[in-house]
Write a structure and sequence with these properties.
Layout lengths: L10 H18 L8 E6 L2 H9 L8 E5 L2 E5 L1 H5 L6 E2 H7 L4 E4 L4 H17 L3 E4 L3 E5 L1 H10 L12 E2 L12 H21 L3 E6 L2 H8 L7 E3 L5 H7 L11 H9 L5 H6 L2 H8 L1 H11 L15 E11 L2 H22 L5 E8 L9 E7 L4 H12 L8 E9 L10 H6 L21 E3 L1 H13 L5 H8 L25 H4 L2 H4 L6 H6 L2 H13 L47 H7 E3 L12 H10 L9 H6 L2 H13 L17 H6 L14 H7 L1
Parallel strand pairs: 2-5, 8-10, 9-10, 15-16
Antiparallel strand pairs: 1-7, 1-9, 2-3, 3-4, 6-7, 11-14, 12-13, 12-14
Helix pairs in contact: 5-7, 6-7, 12-13, 14-15, 14-17, 17-18
The structure holds a DNA duplex.
Keywords: DNA synthesis, Membrane, Transferase, Transmembrane, Transmembrane helix
GO biological process, one term: DNA repair
Protein name: UmuC domain-containing protein
DNA sequence: AAGCAATAG
DNA sequence: GGTTCTATTGCTT
């Protein structure tokens, strides 16, 4: 508010005073600016979900394990000294009887999480998620209504749960709204318990920051209200800046340089000096935060804006391993995307490299639009980041779909791109050939159809969807796969895309991927194309089911103004608990259908420069990376038969930055870094 | 608008 | 600074 130039004295006191005056002033005048914000925080969320799934666990010390750590544990385990984020070995030392449940697959947690959000939204639409186990709710209006509608005698009211800093408080005119908020918080906690079986804590205050901070005062399964007059006490009780939501590691490091380590330090630090280090906006924000001031609104989130999947590991150092891991991630992601019903417009690959000084940080990412071939594109992004000719050591891979777009009735080029059908029958290749016993390679066509056809095209007969989705039995290697082309009306445009690619390829092998395989495996695969391998089928237990709608109707996107009709249920109710299974058995092999027309002049030019005999879809950069003998072989090939493949365009000019360069040594002209359709040509021959 | 850093649970 | 698996927001370009 009044941030005049005078930088005298104590900014902290002034801030608090200002805040108080606002509150009091508004009380006198309108009081409308006083919000009532609730914060809900489920108790040891993952552990509760597992205890619901298996009630026998309730009486046992339970730890949820991800890799080698206990991410959370139930209260039985806590009583025995187990804590969050403890290593499994430490935890077992403390508590030998600890029962461990793997928690790397978040499906069940995610589903339950959205049920909680939906339940809250059924009482009031203003619900903001924070992670899987927390929700903010702005109940200001609801409180106001209840205050008026129910002719409430103040004497009939009492605070439910605790009131921060008090053993007992009378409800008076100044705090009625918070008192009503506490009643609502209790009602919602009760509703969550009776309908979902989950317990949790709640905080009641006048802003998000304070509601969150106060909600943890009494745990578990309790709630606390913060009266405005206790704000300074609450903030002062925090043991360090790390306890202030919104002040993270990086910010703390910078503050440390200024000698600021405690909440008080930052409260009393001159704002102008803070501005020098952080800039106007940030400086004001963090100083407000430590004073308990937070004007940020409760923003309903609607469906997620991105879906990602990742895995971490000790070491991945070959492109083959990268490929397999990405494939695994893509399977889960594409299934989730399918259930979501929207379409991703961008794909992002993120890696974490091992470095001795910085073992777990340092994530680097590249993204690209128009998701043409998922796996191939992933590998392309990978190469954009990592020079595979040099040794590398990754400890994490993440694949993310974002830029999600609702249904779309077939207008945008991207949209129609995704809905292209007409891929010929897919062929499955026995992956035993490359050390992946019992894995099944699905064609990219399968994947695309699984993801994008069922929900997005009303004309799609459910049956074909089903047959596509029930993988195994019906999808034996080389078994015919239902073809959709016919009914997908509008999508068929761009026939040029299909020609060459869809019909001439003998196998649904992604060229880029193929290229990465060792030579002997490449040869074996080529053999298999004519032999039809009999890979073990994956035994996915159930067929694909559309998620039971969880009354998502409530999710009227506030910000996604557009009709997000479909995406009906964005909570992923997993029809089956296949996540685990899925990890173990299928591998998706994307085929090169999706080659997209090249519309990028830059690319064309570069391509020309490369060689006039090269098909238009050949990426000069990729081409340049091939062994010399392969290059000449290809050129020979091209002179004889000119395949009609197209290449994804998009993304041409400026993709380079510092890191890029280092990742892609020579070849500064790798403008678009288009895909390697090169090998698909190779295969066709 | 895209890419990424920072933040959080 | 744990660690893991996400997801969002807001600089920066």
């Amino acid at each position: 508010m009044d941030k005049d130039e005078e930088s005298d004295g104590n900014d902290w006191d002034r801030s608090l005073e200002t805040d108080m005056m606002e509150i009091e002033g508004s009380c006198n005048a309108t009081l409308k600016s006083q919000r009532v914000v609730l914060h809900f925080d489920l108790d040891c969320f993952y552990a509760q979900v597992e205890m619901i799934r298996n009630p026998a666990l309730r009486t046992k010390p339970l730890g949820i394990q991800q890799k080698n750590i206990i991410v959370t544990c139930n209260y039985v385990a806590r009583d025995q000294g187990v804590n969050k984020l403890m290593s499994v070995s430490d935890a077992l030392e403390k508590c030998p009887q600890l029962v461990l449940v793997k928690g790397e697959d978040l499906t069940h947690y995610r589903e339950m999480s959205y049920k909680v959000t939906e339940l809250l939204m059924s009482h009031c639409p203003l619900v903001e998620r924070l992670g899987f186990d927390e929700n903010y709710m702005d109940v200001t209006e609801m409180v106001e209504r209840r205050l008026k509608e129910t002719i409430q005698e103040i004497s009939d009211l009492s605070f439910r749960g605790h009131v921060y800093g008090y053993d007992c408080v009378a409800v008076d005119r100044e705090n009625v709204r918070l008192a009503i908020g506490s009643v609502m918080a209790e009602e919602m906690r009760q509703a969550i318990y009776t309908t979902l079986g989950l317990t949790g804590c709640a905080g009641v205050a006048c802003n998000k920051l304070l509601a969150k901070l106060v909600s943890g005062s009494f745990k578990p399964n309790q709630q606390t209200t913060l009266l405005p007059q206790s704000t300074a006490e609450l903030m002062g009780s925090l043991t360090g800046l790390s306890k202030v939501p919104g002040i993270g590691y990086k910010t703390r490091e910078k503050l440390k340089v200024l000698g600021l380590v405690s909440v008080r330090d930052l409260q009393s630090f001159p704002l102008p000096d803070l501005v020098k280090e952080f800039g106007e906006g940030m400086a004001q924000r963090i100083q407000n935060l430590v004073c308990g001031v937070d004007e940020s609104p409760v923003t309903p989130a609607g469906p997620p804006q991105s879906l990602s999947d990742e895995d971490s590991f000790k070491k991945i150092s070959t492109p083959e391993e990268v490929l397999r891991k990405i494939e695994e991630l893509l399977i889960n992601l594409t299934e989730r995307m399918n259930k979501d019903g929207r379409q991703p417009n961008t794909l992002r690959l993120t890696v974490r490299r091992y470095t001795s000084t910085n073992r777990w940080f340092n994530r680097e990412s590249r993204s690209s639009d128009a998701v043409p071939q998922l796996l191939a594109l992933s590998m392309k992004l990978f190469h954009k980041m990592i020079d595979a000719h040099q040794p590398f050591h990754l400890t994490l891979l993440n694949v993310c779909f974002s830029n999600l777009q609702a249904k779309s009735s077939g207008k945008s080029s991207i949209t129609s791109f995704f809905s292209q059908k007409s891929l010929s029958a897919s062929q499955e290749v026995d992956s035993d050939l490359h050390d992946l016993p019992t894995k099944t390679l699905l064609s990219k066509a399968d994947v695309l159809h699984k993801i994008w056809t069922p929900i997005n095209h009303k004309s799609q007969p459910p049956k074909s969807v089903k047959s596509l989705i029930t993988p195994k039995s019906s999808a034996l290697p080389n078994a015919p796969v239902p073809v959709y082309s016919e009914e997908t009306n509008t999508d068929i445009k761009e026939p040029s895309l299909m020609s060459g690619v869809c019909f001439s390829l003998p196998a649904d092998v992604d060229p880029e991927v193929f290229r990465l395989l060792p030579d002997h495996i490449q040869r074996e695969l080529m053999l298999s194309f004519t032999n039809k391998g009999s890979g073990e089928v994956n035994n996915r237990p159930t067929e694909y089911l559309y998620p039971a709608e969880h009354s998502l109707s409530d999710f009227k996107q506030p910000r996604t103004t557009g009709t997000c009709e479909s995406a009906a249920s964005y909570n992923q109710s997993s029809a089956s608990n296949d996540s685990e299974l899925c990890k173990d058995h299928s591998i998706t092999h994307l085929n090169p259908e999706l080659i997209t027309p090249t519309k990028n002049p830059d690319f064309q030019q570069a391509n020309q420069a490369l060689h006039s005999d090269a098909p238009a879809n050949v990426d000069p950069y990729v081409f340049s990376q091939l062994p010399a003998d392969v290059q000449s072989e290809l050129l020979t090939e091209w002179r004889q038969q000119r395949p009609v493949l197209k290449i994804p365009s998009k993304h041409s000019s400026k993709t380079s930055n510092g890191r890029n360069k280092k990742a892609t040594p020579k070849n500064s002209q790798m403008k678009g870094a288009k895909l390697a359709v090169v090998l698909s040509v190779f295969l066709v021959s």
